[in-house]
Amino acid sequence: MGAVVVESLDAMRGMDEAARAEVRAVAYKGHHDFDAAEMALLPNLGVIANYGVGYDAIKVPAADAAGVRVTNTPDVLNDDVADLAVAMLLMQQRRMRQGDAHVRSGAWGQGAEFALNRKVSGRRVGIMGLGRIGRDIADRLAAFKMEMHYHARSEKQTPGWTYHADPVSLADAVDYLVVALVGGPETENYVSAEVIAALGPDGVLINISRGSTVDEGALLDALEAGRLGGAGLDVFRGEPKVDPRFQALDSVVLQPHQGSGTHETRAAMGQLQRDNIAAFLEGRELLTPVN
Ligand code: NAP
Which of 182, 214, 260 best tests ligand 1's pocket when mutated (most atoms within 8 Å of CB)? Predict the structure, then answer.
């Protein structure tokens, strides 16, 4: 056995020792920690090929220590994730979820008016994390004639866009904050209570990164108190279990972590994952290595 597909670490633990010793490559799909203890179960492991660009579940320092390579699936999913971020913003501001319900319920047919909502084009947007996906979101929103602001660790070559070294300063300058950071310990609670306060009662937070990047308690408190205008969220702490406080809020759009969830993109991600494993097993250079 050269490679094994692992969707559940429990299933891997259930394999007998001889079978585990034959495994050289793991095709990983999941958000549970893949740490030193799991790697130790596979003594001949050489590569963990992640299905997804975000590999925060795979502990890279542990992989380095075990001599295990890690790969991910960058770029092939940028379009879909960026599309969903923009869609959630439009859906939240144009109240499309409520509009749909207004038609379906028959309220419109019976003459009820639908309340006016908010104009999106021409507003001020801040992209938190101007990497591969963040840049694709920004390019889309620039086409909506928005005033562009961003924060990342380093300033980019983006004439006419304003760089903010400090996340609170970014939130203070914009109407919409779109989070496209990496996950993991370094960005834990990056969208803090202070960032949310700076965004303010008219502001909207869109998060397609990881649930960990947002202080979810502070977000819920602000939404419930009307100190934040609204949110569009594709990722949550403890997902797929979602804090029921979200479900009670009319000002949020909630999605089931489906940023890359199209037939086309999932096929491309699977292909890249398999290509990385084939390259490893054939002794060729990895296509998209992380370490
Ligand atoms: P990327 O190209 O690596 O961009 C990540 C951005 O985060 C960069 O702008 C980077 O700053 C910034 N960043 C990294 N570490 C930071 C730190 N410690 N402090 C502040 N900023 C930091 O990654 P990507 O391909 O755009 O993907 C971004 C994330 O999106 C993934 O990691 C994943 O978690 C998430 N994602 C979600 C979905 C979904 O279905 N919702 C799908 C795919 C990906 P610099 O530019 O200065 O390096």
Answer: 182
